[in-house]
Amino acid sequence: MKSKVRFKGKLRSYLCWPLWLTIPMTLADVGLYFYDVTAGFLLTVFIAIYFVLELGLYYNTRPRLANEIINFATQYATVQKKLLNEFEIPYALLDYTGKILWVNERFSELTGVGRNYHKSITTLFSNITREFLQKHEDAQNITIEKKERIFRISLNRIYFDDIMEESKEIDVKDSDEFLTALYLFDETELQHCKQENLDQDCEKGRKSVKPGNRWQGVAALVYIDNYDEALDSIEDVKRSLLIALVDRKVNQYFSKMDALVRKIEKDKYFVVFKYKYLQKLMDDRFSVLEDVKTVKVGNEMAVTLSIGVGIKGTSYNENYEQARAAIDLALGRGGDQVVVKNGEDIAYFGGKAKQVERNTRVKARVKAHALHEIIESRENVIIMGHSLTDVDSLGAGIGIFCAARVLGKKAQIVINEPTTSIRPLMECFTPEKGYPEDMFINSEIAIEEVSRNSLVMVVDTNRPSYTECPELLTRTDTIVVFDHHRQGSEVIENPLLSYIEPYASSACEMVAEVLQYFQEGFKLSPAEADCIYAGILIDTNNFMTKTGVRTFEAAAYLRRSGAEVTRVRKMLRNDMACYKARAEAVRHAEVYRGAFAISVCPSEDVESPTIVGAQAANELLNIIGIKASFVLTEYAGKIYISSRSIDEINVQLIMERMGGGGHLNVAGAQLTGCTISEAKHAIMRTIDEMLEEGDIQE
């Protein structure tokens, strides 16, 4: 074999250059004959002797050199094989069919097979079949569990035409055969560590928060909603016992989750626990909310909690900020609930209890002073409510208009399309009666009037998409929000002042309270008082819904300011078409599951069908056995749902499921891209789901 070895390239040139040297020496010898024949002959003899000696040396040296090279190559290959065999990463070589050709020591140790194990790789790893190897051309990484161990297997193809490209003995250009290099990684410990930090995805089909958080810490804030009110309802000697029992309930509940619980104020707790326990708490629907309500030591008012959970950040500070945003949202929605916030993903739990009315007016006084300072520092005020302005939105806007006017600031109210319900009220504010001609403007004019130094006042809504002109919110740095609806995931960002009280009956009630503290000697005209009073009257359904002590106090203030009940009633009367539409909605109502009234309000020949639909929903509650009513109205390419209840059903939770919101007894939603029939079935389906989940009770 060695005799057949042929040298190529630079090695061959190195061995042959002494022989090639005879060529220039022969040419020189020929030239020498022309000068001296004797000298030429002597040189010829020298060249002949040199050539014979060099030729003999070449043929004598070549076999020995070849032998040395072969020995070196053999030793080099052995070193390579030894290094590969002792390689720390388990390694195996498979043929085209998946048969094991060779394995190193680490592979043998990890799998328990010997060096002479030449069976199919499928016998070790059932997932790696011949079909799998031949199907996937690119490098593959697969994870396999075997004997309580987790392996990551990397597979790489080695084609024959690549490794034998320079071979002149074998032609493999048209061959598609290949070898497979298999690398085996034991990731058991790594996967166990990941499992400690990441919990499994939430149960399929349930509304929850997407995981996506790789930090195992979860921050939570727990607030007692009605601390002062609950203590005021019991004797002094029992107050410490009540607080102790609440502390015990909170600590016991979270201690089951290996949580750290610290009381940071008399009615506030800070909680930290591992992410893996969060799904358990959500599956339990945070039962601590109901457990705390069972604490009774003579207190007339049940204690309720609000909890904010933050799980977005990669540090304690970021998660704490998320928890703060979540608790603010929970409180803004009326308390007695849990808000889990993971960035833009938000999940709600609880919120079934009636909101607790605050007896103190301290907050209203503070907000009044803050509003006074803000208006005083701005050039002008642009006021707007929600689209399809109703009486409550208009009344609240009129109140803010009066506040701006007393400070000498120009104020305008944005109303695009006045409805029949508010037109009689708007007619009270004409230039003949001393009001500016541009008191009411549309969105186009509002955009022209607004500037960075303007105040945009939003009343009766806290959702930017629901406002009369959402574009105004982007054209100023000063935004104030006054609203009585529960907050949802969509909120107006970065308001300079936010006053959201879900317990309030109406935005007009909130504005009436603020006006009492706005400025010394502040007075409303009878027409202005009428308008604000009408807003309270409509939203409370003639003081029958969401009416508290402060509602009557606000009404009393307006009555002292000149509001006349009879005059307001005349302005709020409906025309014959509206009355007939309301009657038709009541007449054709369908009772679902014996307690839910669902109907459709006609919108033909009715200027304000949504308002008529809300009135019909109120009427349906007068029927014995009806716990909640839903009236659908098709208007302007949308389907508006007005929902009402007395006290047993939380319609706000139902409407939130359908993309809307509101209050416990008064709520609504807007649907697009569906028919009336589909919307009715959607309501029925939502009711069924919530009954099954226990969120509402028949």
What do these coordinates show?
This protein is of the alpha/beta class and 698 residues long. The protein has five domains: 2-85; 91-193, Beta-Lactamase (2-Layer Sandwich); 202-350, 2-Layer Sandwich (Alpha-Beta Plaits); 362-571, Alpha-Beta Complex (inorganic pyrophosphatase (n-terminal core)); 578-693, Diaminopimelate Epimerase, Chain A, domain 1. The chain is built from 24 helices and 23 strands. The strands form four sheets. Strands 7-8-6-9-10-11 form a six-stranded mixed β-sheet. The protein has a six-stranded parallel β-sheet with strand order 14-13-12-15-16-17. Strands 18-19-20-21-23-22 form a six-stranded mixed β-sheet, sandwiched between helices. Helix 14 packs parallel to helix 17 (507-516), helix 17 (507-516) crosses helix 18 and helix 18 packs antiparallel against helix 19 (549-560). The longest helix has 49 residues, at 37-85. The radius of gyration is 43 Å and the shape is elongated. Mean pLDDT is 83; it is low at 167-172 and 199-215.
Tally of DSSP β-strands: 23
Question: How many separate helices?
Answer: 24
Give the rounded overall mean pLDDT: 83
The CATH topology name of the largest domain reads inorganic pyrophosphatase (n-terminal core)
Distance between the termini: 96 Å
Low-pLDDT segments: 167-172, 199-215
User: Roughly how many Å is the radius of gyration?
Assistant: 43 Å
User: Structural class from helices and strands?
Assistant: alpha/beta
Domain count, please report it: 5
CATH architecture group name of the largest domain: Alpha-Beta Complex
CATH class of the largest domain: Alpha Beta
CATH superfamily of the largest domain: inorganic pyrophosphatase (n-terminal core)
Helix content: 40-55%
The biggest beta sheet reads: 6 strands, mixed
Beta-strand portion reads: 15-25%
| Global geometry | elongated
Q: Strand order of the main beta sheet, please?
A: 7-8-6-9-10-11
